Design the sequence.
């Protein structure tokens, strides 16, 4: 029986392959339309990832003709690199300071704008405008606001007698990162608001009506209905927010340049410095893969914690 079924399986497999090939030939126009996108994706994403991984095993300096193979030396250097460790701490500081506040404020604004207010559409648009504003434009605007000589923040704080001398927002070791965090919150609240609005509108109204009949006040409805029902939405925003915050570059590049004294040097900015300031492409590629592993581990941890909480 086994010897009889084996040729039949091989024949059916061959016939399946021929059928697939006929389908491909029949739908060749679809593949023709998909070809430009597939080629661009293959060249600028797949090939770039493979080639960057290849560079991690070489001492690849742009200015040096020799590109010697160094094995795992770049990875060992990364693990013992104090600047890289500092950049990870700075990035974690930025993430911990910006993501929770962005989500909390976004939820508050979404709850407010989910009510039947006048000019609700206009208010939603105004809150979402920072999201669609290019990072370069936003960073230049906020750098001007933070200016120690003629910035609006110092002007109004001095006028209200809240400070006695201008603050050097972006040049102070203690104020530089909080200043960048404040700008990031301003730019991210609109996205959180829109996502939370979508989540709020998907919650059945019957749950709130039943809670009202049982005597639940507004705070109880928020605590026991709204927040638990928005848990998947919050997880999505948390994961997307952490991935985005670990990739922050434009704001740091324009506003602080990684200073003062490396207090705002994030992982991506350190990768940029390694590649385009020190021209160490091999080591920069290693740092990029280190960032990928770090993000992958953080995302897995978040998913595991969510599954345990949901269970």
Sequence:
């Amino acid at each position: 029986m086994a010897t009889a079924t084996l040729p039949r399986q091989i024949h059916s497999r061959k016939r399946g392959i021929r059928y697939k090939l006929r389908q491909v030939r029949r739908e060749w126009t679809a593949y023709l339309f998909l070809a430009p996108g597939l080629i661009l994706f293959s060249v600028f994403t797949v090939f770039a990832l493979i080639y960057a991984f290849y560079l991690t095993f070489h001492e690849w300096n742009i200015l040096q003709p020799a590109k010697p193979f160094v094995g795992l030396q770049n990875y060992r250097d990364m693990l013992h690199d104090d600047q890289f460790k500092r950049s990870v701490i700075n990035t974690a500081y930025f993430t911990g300071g910006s993501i929770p506040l962005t989500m909390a404020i976004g939820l508050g604004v979404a709850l407010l704008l989910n009510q039947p207010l006048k000019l609700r559409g206009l208010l939603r648009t105004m809150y979402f405008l920072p999201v669609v504003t290019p990072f370069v434009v936003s960073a230049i605007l906020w750098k001007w606001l933070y200016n120690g000589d003629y910035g609006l923040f110092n002007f109004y704080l001095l006028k209200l007698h809240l400070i006695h001398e201008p603050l050097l927002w972006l040049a102070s070791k203690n104020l530089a990162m909080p200043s960048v965090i404040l700008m990031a919150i301003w730019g991210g609240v609109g996205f959180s608001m829109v996502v939370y609005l979508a989540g709020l509108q998907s919650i059945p109204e019957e749950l709130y009506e039943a809670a009202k009949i049982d005597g639940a006040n507004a705070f109880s409805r928020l605590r026991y209905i709204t927040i638990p029902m928005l848990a998947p939405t919050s997880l999505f925003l948390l994961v997307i927010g952490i991935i985005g915050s670990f990739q922050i570059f434009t704001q740091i590049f324009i506003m602080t340049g990684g200073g003062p004294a490396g207090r705002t040097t994030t992982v991506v900015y350190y990768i940029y410095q390694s590649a385009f300031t020190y021209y160490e492409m091999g080591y920069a590629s290693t740092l990029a893969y280190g960032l990928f592993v770090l993000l992958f581990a953080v995302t897995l941890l978040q998913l595991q914690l969510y599954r345990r909480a949901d269970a």
